[in-house]
Write a sequence for this structure.
C-alpha cells in the first residue's frame, strides 16, 4: 500500500508541475527576463498568447519547418497589438474591418517574418553581473531576410543600459530575455521593415552644368536604381553606392532641369540643377555698361563653365549694369544666381531692377578670394513687392567694400541668371 501511495503521490506531483508549466507558458509576462529553459525559442512563441499573430504568420509563410528546430535563433517579435496595427495601416483587413494576417501575400509575409529573426546566435540583452555571455550589442545585424535578398537593409539594434530599441523605434522593447534551449525571444512594440524606402536626393555636385558633364548625386536609398532623369530625359548613370550616383548630363540639356532618381522602391523628390533663364552664359543676352574699371564682356582668362566670362576690374565702388533683352516675370523665379571669382577678398552689393547703388534694395555678399563663389539671393530679399506680380529686367553689381589696392582687384563673373 505504501508503494502504491508513493506512486500515486509522485504522479500527482508530476501532473501539478505539468499543469503549472503549461499555465506559465501561456502567461509569459510582456516585460521582464523570465527564464524559460524548458522550451525551445520556437516553443516560447507558441506558448505566448501575446505573440499568436506572428506565430500564425510563420505558419502561413511556410516557415514552421525551418524554424521549429534545434538551431539557434534570436527573435525580435511584434506583439499582437503592434502587428495588428501594422496590418490595418497597410490595408490587410477583412470585410468587417478587422486585421487579417491571411490577406498578406505569402512572399511578403515570408520577408516580414524573416526580417525579425537572426540565425546562428544566442544572445540576451540584460547583462548579468559576473556572468559571461554572448550579449546583444548595439550595431547592424544580418537577418534571415538579408540572406534571401541582399538589397534589404540590415537590422539595426540599439542597446543602451540594458534597454533594447530596434530599427530606430523610439519605444523600448517591452519584453526582454525570454530564453530557451536554443535562443531568445524579444517582444517589440514596432514592426521591422527592411525594404528600402524611396530614394532621397540631398545634393548635386554642380550648381550649373553643361551637356556631357558628369555630376555626382548624393543622397540616400539608392538601391536597385532604375533611372536618373533630367526633366523627361533619361541620363546615363552609374550607381556607385547606396548614397552616391554618377550621372552624365544629357545632350539636350539647356540650362535648367529637375533631376529625379527612380528605384524599384519609389521616386525621389526633384532636385534642380541649372537656371531657368541665363542672362549671361558665354555672352550677355541684352546690353550693359559699367564704370570704375575696364569691362571685358567675353573673356577667356577664367571661366566657371563654357568658354567666356565677364572680366571686371573692380576699383573701389565700381560696378556694372546688365539689362535683359526681354522682361522677366517675378512669379516665375525665386532666386538670382551667379558665379564670381575675385582675385582679392571683397564685398559686393547685388540688386535687380535698378541702375544705382541703392543698398536699401540690394543684398551685400562677401566674396572669398581665389575661388568661384556660387551666389544665390532670394528675389524676395531684393524686391518683395515683385512677389505679388511684376516684371524685372536688369541686374546691378557694385564693389561695396571700398577696396583700394594696386593693381586693382579683378572680378570674373559667369552664369548670371534666375531660378
Amino acid at each position: 500500500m505504501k508503494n502504491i501511495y508513493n506512486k500515486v503521490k509522485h504522479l500527482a506531483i508530476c501532473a501539478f508541475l505539468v499543469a503549472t508549466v503549461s499555465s506559465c507558458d501561456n502567461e509569459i509576462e510582456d516585460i521582464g527576463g523570465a527564464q524559460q529553459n524548458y522550451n525551445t525559442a520556437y516553443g516560447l512563441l507558441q506558448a505566448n498568447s501575446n505573440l499568436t499573430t506572428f506565430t500564425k504568420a510563420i505558419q502561413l509563410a511556410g516557415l514552421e519547418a525551418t524554424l521549429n528546430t534545434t538551431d539557434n535563433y534570436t527573435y525580435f517579435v511584434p506583439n499582437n497589438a503592434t502587428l495588428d496595427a501594422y496590418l490595418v495601416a497597410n490595408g490587410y483587413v477583412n470585410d468587417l474591418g478587422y486585421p487579417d494576417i491571411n490577406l498578406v501575400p505569402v512572399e511578403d509575409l515570408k520577408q516580414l517574418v524573416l526580417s525579425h529573426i537572426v540565425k546562428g546566435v544566442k544572445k540576451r540583452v540584460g547583462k548579468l553581473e559576473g556572468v559571461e555571455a554572448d550579449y546583444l550589442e548595439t550595431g547592424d545585424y544580418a537577418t534571415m531576410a538579408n540572406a534571401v535578398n541582399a538589397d534589404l537593409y540590415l537590422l539595426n539594434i540599439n542597446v543602451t543600459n540594458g534597454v533594447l530599441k530596434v530599427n530606430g523605434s523610439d519605444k523600448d522593447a517591452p519584453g526582454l530575455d525570454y530564453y530557451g534551449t536554443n535562443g531568445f525571444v524579444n517582444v517589440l512594440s514596432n514592426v521591422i521593415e527592411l525594404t528600402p524606402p524611396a530614394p532621397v536626393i540631398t545634393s548635386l555636385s554642380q550648381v550649373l552644368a553643361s551637356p556631357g558633364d558628369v555630376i555626382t548625386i548624393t543622397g540616400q536609398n539608392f538601391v536597385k536604381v532604375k533611372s536618373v532623369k533630367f526633366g523627361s530625359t533619361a541620363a546615363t548613370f552609374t550607381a556607385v553606392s547606396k548614397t552616391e550616383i554618377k550621372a552624365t548630363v544629357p545632350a539636350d540639356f539647356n540650362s535648367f532641369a529637375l533631376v529625379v532618381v527612380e528605384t524599384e522602391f519609389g521616386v525621389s523628390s526633384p532636385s534642380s540643377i541649372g537656371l531657368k533663364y541665363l542672362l549671361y552664359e558665354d555672352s550677355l543676352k541684352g546690353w550693359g555698361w559699367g564704370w570704375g574699371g575696364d569691362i571685358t564682356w567675353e573673356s577667356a582668362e577664367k571661366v566657371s563653365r563654357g568658354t567666356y566670362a565677364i572680366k571686371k576690374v573692380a576699383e573701389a565702388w565700381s560696378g556694372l549694369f546688365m539689362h535683359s533683352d526681354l522682361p522677366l516675370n517675378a512669379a516665375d523665379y525665386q532666386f538670382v544666381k551667379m558665379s564670381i571669382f575675385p582675385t582679392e577678398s571683397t564685398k559686393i552689393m547685388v540688386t535687380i531692377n535698378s541702375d544705382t547703388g541703392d543698398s536699401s534694395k540690394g543684398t551685400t555678399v562677401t566674396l572669398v578670394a581665389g575661388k568661384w563663389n556660387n551666389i544665390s539671393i532670394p528675389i524676395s530679399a531684393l524686391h518683395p513687392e515683385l512677389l505679388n506680380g511684376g516684371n524685372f529686367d536688369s541686374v546691378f553689381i557694385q564693389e561695396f567694400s571700398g577696396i583700394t589696392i594696386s593693381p586693382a582687384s579683378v572680378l570674373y563673373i559667369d552664369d548670371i541668371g534666375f531660378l
The first helix runs from residue 2 to 26.
